[in-house]
Amino acid sequence: MTDPAVEPQRRPSVSEWKALVENFQEPSDSRAAWQVTSTLVAYVAAWLLMILAWSAAWWLALPVAVIAAGLLVRLFIIFHDCGHGSFFRSHTANSIVGFVAGVLTWTPFHHWRGEHARHHKTSGDLNRRGVGDIWTMTVEEYLAASRWRRLLYRLSRNPLVLFGIAPLFVFVVYQRLPSRGVPDRDRRSVWWTNLALVALAAAMIWAVGPLAYLVLQGTVMAVGGSMGVWLFYVQHQFEGAYWQRGEAWDYTDAALRGSSFYRLPRVLQWFSGNIGFHHVHHLSPRIPNYRLEACHRSHPVFRAVPELTLAQGWRSARLRLWDESRGKLVGFREARRVREARRAAGRADCGAD
What we know:
The chain is mainly α. It has helices at residues 14-21, 29-56, 58-84, 91-104, 109-122, 139-144, 147-156, 159-173, 184-208, 210-236, 251-256, 266-271, 278-283, 292-298, 300-303, 310-315, 332-352, and strands spanning 137-138, 261-262, 307-308, 321-323, 328-330. Strand 4 and strand 5 (328-330) form a beta hairpin.
């Protein structure tokens, strides 16, 4: 197929980008089977190494736990693709692998799939925040909020909370209960996942003991959860990110301008399942992770997107609020400047009166 003539400096139309991604949306059962098999084997091997290391000296197990955490992130990407129905051709295969990967990542498959679908439909829309995203306030909302709400928001945006405490809370506690108003199937997926987790935990405690399981599983979950939340954060929270309200919001712009291309070293790209090509994924969630890079390289329009390196990604952690007047994410310091400028203007008006 000949690619439509799309200039990289302008946004492609819906028909143009659909034609560009069409060839990459077909799942490959052989590639999917190899990816899930190799990742599961590596994850089990990492656990066996952790257990052996623990029996020698507990601290020897911790470096292996970091590798296991990276494999857990890769398992989550497989789980994620199954949720989009893009990993295997078969709906049944996606559901089975998605459930198993969901148990290993402590995430109920059908329940998460519903919430994540809403994220794709609303990402970058200021009027539809709150489901499957990171709490983001505008500068105006922050300045108008009560002192306690500002304190709560600042706490939620603290790196220690956002990338340390929050991931453990989400995966260990929040995912154990269904959200209000979800369909019965989504609700049941939470209970079935919880039941499988109880059985798995019981088997592991019987095999290695409660302390070893608590420390090893806790370390893997803490490190893997932090990695996962960081990836999700940096894919949508960067200085030139895209946010609009209501009718001004556009799906194509939200994908190509509001989702970053996080350019990672090859080894980190492997552990993160190519999810750094997030702009391609948001444009077409039907593309499996093992075809994202090929799609990205297929046309200049995919390369004319916000690109973040590791260093640039770290700098984005200081961004906290969306400034609607300037169309960019800013830090709390900029919000204080706005507040002080308004106070100064107010005092000047009072003096003039």
